[in-house]
Design a protein that fits this description.
It is a single chain. This protein has 106 residues and is of the alpha+beta class. It is built from two helices and four strands. The protein has helices spanning 2-9, 80-96; strands at residues 26-32, 35-41, 48-56, 69-71. A four-stranded antiparallel beta sheet has the order 1-2-3-4, covered by helices on one side. β2 (35-41) and β3 (48-56) form a beta hairpin. It is globular. It binds zinc ion (ZN).
Length: 106
C-alpha cells in the first residue's frame, strides 16, 4: 500500500527545497477501509506538510498511468478550522478504535 502512496507523491516535490518525496517522507498514521491517513515530511529540509487524507479503492494497479488513487481535495484551501476538524476526526478514531476489535478478544 505504501508503494501506491509513493506513486501518488512521486510527481510532487518539496515546495521549500524542491527535493522529491521518497519512502521515508511518507508515514502512514492510520489505514482504514478505503482511506489512509498519512503524514508527509520532506526528509531533505525537514519541512512538515501535515496530514493528508487519501481515499483509495481496492482495484489493483494495471499500469502506472492508471493508478486507482484519488486525492480528496476540497474546493477551498485548507484553513485553520479544517486542521482542527482533522485533529478531532483522528482523535475520535483513536478513542473508538477498540470498537472494531472482535468482542472475544480481551
Ligand atoms: Zn524540502
Amino acid at each position: 500500500m505504501k508503494k501506491k502512496l509513493k506513486a501518488l507523491f512521486s510527481n510532487l516535490c518539496c515546495s521549500v527545497c524542491k527535493s522529491e518525496f521518497d519512502d521515508d517522507s511518507i508515514e502512514i498514521k492510520r489505514q482504514e477501509q478505503g482511506l489512509i491517513v498519512t503524514h508527509l515530511t520532506c526528509r531533505h529540509c525537514g519541512k512538515n506538510f501535515g496530514i493528508a487524507f487519501v481515499g483509495i479503492n481496492n482495484i489493483e494497479v494495471k499500469n502506472s498511468d492508471d493508478l486507482p488513487l484519488v486525492v480528496q481535495e476540497g474546493p477551498e484551501p485548507i484553513n485553520y478550522d479544517d486542521v482542527i476538524d482533522a485533529h478531532r476526526f483522528i482523535r475520535n478514531l483513536d478513542e473508538h478504535w477498540q470498537d472494531h476489535l472482535p468482542k472475544n478478544i480481551k
